[in-house]
Design goal:
Blueprint: H1 5-11, E1 17-24, E2 30-37, E3 52-56, H2 58-130, H3 134-140, H4 151-163
Antiparallel strand pairs: 1-2, 2-3
Helix pairs in contact: 2-3, 3-4
Length: 177
C-alpha cells in the first residue's frame, strides 16, 4: 500500500516540526491532533499555538486531512518566522539604543572634559593676569575657534589683556598723533 503522506507534508514547504496524535473513539470516529511547532524560535509565545483537531471517519480524514491543515500550518509557520524576525529586530534596536546611549554619554563626557580644560586654561590666565603677567596670560587664553561656545568671552579676555601690555616702543600710539 503506497501513500503520499510525507510528500504532501513536504509540499507544504514549512520550517518546523510535527507532533501528530491519532486516537479512535468508541463511536468509530477518528480524532487527529496535529501540532506544528518550531523550537528554534526564541519567543515563548510559540508555545501558545494550539494543535489542529480533526474528527471524522477514516475516509473523511483521507480525503480532507491535507486540505484542512494546509492553511493553518502555513499561517503558523509564517507566525514563527515573524516572531523570530521580531526578536532579532528588537535585539538590534536594543543594541542600537545602547550604542546611542553610550555615544551620548561619551559626548557628554567629552563636553565636560572640554569644559574643564577651558576653565583650567582661563583660570591659569586669570592667575597670570592677577600676577601682572599680562603677556603670558594673553598667550594662555585659547583661540576663539577652539571653543566656539565661549568665543565672545575669549575675545573680551584677550582684548582686556592686550590693553594691559606695557607700551611698545616700536608701536607707540602717542607718536603718530
Amino acid at each position: 500500500m503506497a501513500t503520499n503522506f510525507f510528500q504532501s507534508i513536504e509540499a507544504l514547504q514549512v520550517q518546523g516540526d510535527w507532533k501528530i496524535n491519532i486516537a479512535k473513539e468508541p463511536s468509530g470516529m477518528w480524532v487527529v491532533s496535529v501540532l506544528f511547532f518550531n523550537d528554534t524560535v526564541g519567543d515563548d509565545a510559540r508555545k501558545k499555538v494550539p494543535p489542529i483537531l480533526l474528527k471524522g471517519t477514516a475516509t473523511e480524514l483521507d480525503e480532507g486531512f491535507f486540505p484542512e491543515i494546509t492553511k493553518p500550518v502555513q499561517e503558523t509557520a509564517q507566525l514563527f518566522i515573524n516572531m523570530e524576525q521580531y526578536l532579532k529586530e528588537r535585539e538590534q534596536a536594543k543594541l542600537q539604543s545602547q550604542k546611542e546611549k553610550d555615544k551620548a554619554t561619551q559626548e557628554e563626557k567629552n563636553k565636560t572634559d572640554r569644559q574643564k580644560k577651558y576653565e583650567e586654561v582661563m583660570k591659569k590666565a586669570s592667575e597670570l593676569e592677577a600676577a601682572g603677567k599680562f603677556r603670558e596670560a594673553f598667550v594662555k587664553v585659547p583661540e576663539a575657534d577652539q571653543y566656539p561656545e565661549h568665543a565672545d568671552a575669549i575675545r573680551e579676555k584677550k582684548s582686556a589683556l592686550a590693553k594691559q601690555f606695557s607700551p611698545d616702543l616700536f608701536n607707540d600710539d602717542t607718536k603718530t598723533k
